[in-house]
Amino acid sequence: MIVPGAAFPHEFVMHATYVLSGTLIVLSSLLMVWHARAWEAVKSKPASVEELRFRWRQFRRRATVSILLAAMGVAALVSQFVEQPVVEILLWLGVLLMILAMLAFALLDIRATATHIGRLRRQHRVDRENLLAEVRKMHGGGSNGHANSASELPASEP
User: CA-CA distance, 39 to 36, in Å (whole number)?
Assistant: First the structure.
């Protein structure tokens, strides 16, 4: 029974830390499996060199974050057995650095993904314009690439 105003029992904090540590380690493991499967799926399909490079760097960033997550779980677990305050402070400073590194990787991932999507959109526009130009050339050069009347549509083949 928890008495108002009393400190949490040491056992409660210890068990909560075990649950937190285990959850972080299991979550990290599941994320690693997910990232590895995603990378394997990318490798199994035809893709450009640029796409493969992007996906490989994405995999590395995300796998690193998953490893940091597991390391945080281990650090939380180890903190229960550290008796010197200086070592415990250093341990938790390490956890803080891991959190900051995870944030940095997340920001890098957002930026890289936005840049990659922008590049894909630009390429899509160029490809679309090239295809529209070919269609105009094949059909006598419509003004905007869109058929305005039935006479501008290509004859259907039987």
Answer: 5
